Every structure is written in C-alpha cells, then in structure tokens.
Amino acid sequence: MNFIITETLNAVKQIYNEEIAESVINIQETRKEFEGQITLVVFPIVRFSKKSPEETATAIGEYLVQNVKEVTAFNVVKGFLNLSIADSYWLNLFNTELLNDDFAKVKPNGQKVMVEYSSPNTNKPLHLGHVRNNLLGYAVAELLKADGYEVFKVNLVNDRGIHICKSMLAWEKWGNGETPESANLKGDHLVGKYYVIFDKEYKKEIEALIAEGQTEDEAKKNAPLIKQAQHMLLAWEAGDEHVIALWKKMNGWVYDGFEVSYKNLGVDFDKYYYESNTYLLGKDTVDEGLEKGVFFKKEDGSVWIDLTAEGLDQKLVLRADGTSVYITQDLGTAQMKYDDYHMDQSIYVVGNEQDYHFKVLFLILEKLGKSWAKGLHHLSYGMVDLPSGKMKSREGTVVDADDLVAEMIDTAKQKTEALGKINDFSDKEKQALYYNIGLGALKYFLLKVEPKKRLLFDPSESIDFQGHTGPFIQYTHARIKSLLSKANYKLVAGEEQINVPLAPTELDMIMLLAKYPEEISNAAKAYSPAFLANYLYEVAKLFNKFYHEVPPIVKEENEALKQHRLNICKLTADVLKSGTKILGINVPERM
Predict the structure, then answer these.
(1) What's the domain count of the chain?
(2) Predicted local confidence at residue 421, as pLDDT
(3) pTM score, two decimals?
(4) Which residues form the Arginyl tRNA synthetase N-terminal domain (predicted)?
(5) What residue numbers bound the domain in which 40 lies?
C-alpha cells in the first residue's frame, strides 16, 4: 500500500501546498461495517489543511479518485477516509507478488539475537511449566529467524547446587545401584524419584526433631539428611572424586531423559551452558563495579548496589565471605554469552516470578556501562493451570512433560478414531497423525495466549476440529491439500487470472493472505507467537467461509476462474504450513 502513502503526500501538496513527512500518513484496514478496504486517518493532516477533518478527507478522497486509477471510490466517516481499491489491483498483487516463491521470505537484517530458554534443574523431569517455557522460547526464536535475524538458541542448565545433591544422596542411601535400564525408567524420572524420596525422608526427620522439642526452623536446619546434602555440596565444590563421579553419572541419566523430552516437544538448542561451569563467574564484574563506584562495600566486606533511586532496593552482589549470590553468576554469565556471540539482543525466557530479578540484573549491567545491556529483554510468562482432576501426575504435585505429551497423543487418538476418517491409514501413518494432532493442539493452545497471561489448559478442550484450536488449522490444511490433489493442481498465474471477477470472500482472502509477512514481523517485534497463532486461525476460519460461499471449485467451468480459486487454496495451504512451522506445529497432508 505504499502507493496510497505516496499519492496522499501528493494530494496534500497539490491541494494545500504543504510538504508533509511520510510519518504523518496513517493507513489501516477499513472496518467491516464500512465500504472500502483501506482507511486513511485524516486527523494528523488537519493541522496542515486548516480545514475540518470531514472537509480534509473529502478533498483528499476526490483527488485520489480523479488521479489514481487503483482508487475507485471513497466515503468519509468523521476523520476517516475509506478508500475502495480496484479488484484489478488486488488480483495483480496476488498473482505477481503473493504467488511468487519469495513471498514472505525476508533477507538477513545483519542483527544477532540470542534466545535462552528451558533452563531445567537436573534433579527432576521437565514439568508443565517447562513445556510453556520451551514452546514459547522455540517459537520466538523461529519468529526472529523468519524476520531476518541470525538466532542462537541456548539452554542454561542448573546442574549443581543443593537440589541435585539431595537426589544424589537419596540414591546413595536407598538406590541399591538402580539404573534407568534396571528400573525401566527415563533417567530424569529416576533421578526425580530419588528427589521425592529425599523429601519424604527429610520430612520424617523434621517431625522427629520437633517431637523432641526443637522448633520447625531448628529441625529443618538440624535434620541429618540436609546436613549430609550440604556436606556433599561442599565436597563437590572441593572436587571430591567420588562425589564428582556420582554427579556426572546421575546428570548423564537426566540429560538422556531430557533429550527424549526435547525431541517429543520438537525443540532444539545451538548451545548448552552449565551452571557447574558458570557459578564462579561474576566476581571480576563485581571488582569492575567497585572500581567504577557502581557497587559499595559494607564494613563486613559484603558488596552491594544501591538501586533505591530507581524505585528498587539495595541488592547484595557478593557475600562477606567472598562467595557469589545468584545475581553474581548471572552478571558473569551475561558477559560470557556476549563474549561468545556478540549479539545485538539477548532474550531470557523465564517465568514472571523472576520479574524483579531481571529488572535488577539489566539495570546493574547498564550502570556498569555494558554497551549491550540495552539489548537485554526478559520474556516473562504466566503459569499454566490444569482443571482439577483432569490429569494425573506421577508425584501427585506437578504434571510431568512426558505424561502431558502422552495424554495429548492418546486424546488425539480417541478423538480422531471417533471421526472414522482414517481407516485407510497404515499403523505408522496413524501414529504420526496422533502425534502431530496431539502436539499441535498442545502447542497452539499454549502459544495463542499472550505470554504474560496465566492460562488454564484443558487437554481435551484443546483437541477440537472445529474450535479455535491447532487441530482446526491442521484439518483446514489437510482439506485444502485433498482438494488440490483431486484437481491435479499446477500453479498458473498469468494474464487470464488477473482479469477474473472477484467474489467478496475472495477479496477478503487475498487481503488477509497479503498480511502474512507483516504478521510475522509484528509477532517478532513483540516477542509474541500469539500474534501469529491468532492470525493463522483467522486465515483458516476465513478459508472455510470462502470454500462454502463460492460454487464448487473443482466443477467450475470457467478455467481461468477455477485456476484463480485453486491458487487461493494453494497459497492458503502454504501460509498455514509456513506459519505453523514457525510455531513448531506440523500440519498433516491428510487427516
């Protein structure tokens, strides 16, 4: 629509003898209740015309109709000029640009961006919260790629600390040499089992000490198990060979388990960082901050930063004994990641319970004068809730990612078989279909909601072939592919297709499909896959309306019109497939 901007600038110059900046021109899609396709917002131009909004809009509308062949009519609603654009313009756009192989492909923009997501602990399996994190991180990374960025996906694994020592200690005490193979369990589930055992035994010790007269706080500190776990952590930090060997073995089990979960979720990473390699980082950054006067040292030797002027508080960055706190590590890790990749932006996909932490982290890095600190962004997201009783969890408290994936596939199987349309599928094809529908439903349901919002996820509700769901989009794609197959479709986009009559829903389809590159760009800028997810639903919904409103396409006798409508079908399928791929969703060819 650049020609509308150009011609409006010409109109203002011719009518009012005023040169105005392109930024003054605001065009948008016309609301459905009014005639036209493009709306010019006239209010910013009024200060140049010195006329009322209605007079200004009318004068510009008359100029455009007289001087621009693509503009066939106009109407004015207060300060809004609604323009009707000739069908020939849309048909030409569709056939020459939208059907081109390069449609929606963006050239590299020279910008580098890192997306850090997943960040699991190695003492338990991935759970429902990790599912949203992984799917969101992956989709944002793919969106940024589609918008021209060079993207690095990284995973900072929390593989050290008291949590992993609890699992290690419990396995030593009660494991009897159990392995993932002997237990027939994924490694992360086996290690998680011993984390739960530790917790149960620890609570027993606390209760016993309270019964002996200790307070709850005293009992928690004095319980033998917690003291043993703390001793094990000190031994790990001191490089004790036995503890290190056990740590490597159990973490190895967990990583094998995680890889299976990541593969099932369809996410991947370019690089893994491990807290065991980064937990000592940041002390150089603290020294730098002291030299620059950004940090100050208290009498006990602890190092702090005062952020009260920014509405925050005083923050400890190094303990009196010289040991790190979490933010110390994050300062050092942020510097290390920048040194590794020199990215322009770095996005941390972390739940909203860490909002304050990242405000402090980013502010400290800015105060330290890090040139790259302005490119840091915390992609905060809300929790995922499940309707009570809808899913059983292995430990009774959190829902494992593996259990959730298995339930989604099973639900997809039940609902697909109930439709009775896959009797001619092989068993292998059926299993692939159940997986794609189940995972498509899960991913779409979690991604269609703005990241910041808390959401309620019902596995059964998410698999609906007619609702605002992933399976509805998948089904629409499969339906189009079936239609194209029956028609023996081949792409033809020539002069004949530019001169066909255009039905209202066809025009709506062309306009909506034309917005695809813009939707990708907007979603990438907002770090919000929800923008793209909801756009794809609108495409699928409008296609179904188009399909029902036009006469049967395959039976159309006018060959040029038939080819044109098949071209619309083809581009719709392409957009649905391309867009869902960015979201990590596979669309079946048939279902």
Answers:
(1) 3
(2) 86
(3) 0.93
(4) 2-85
(5) 2-85
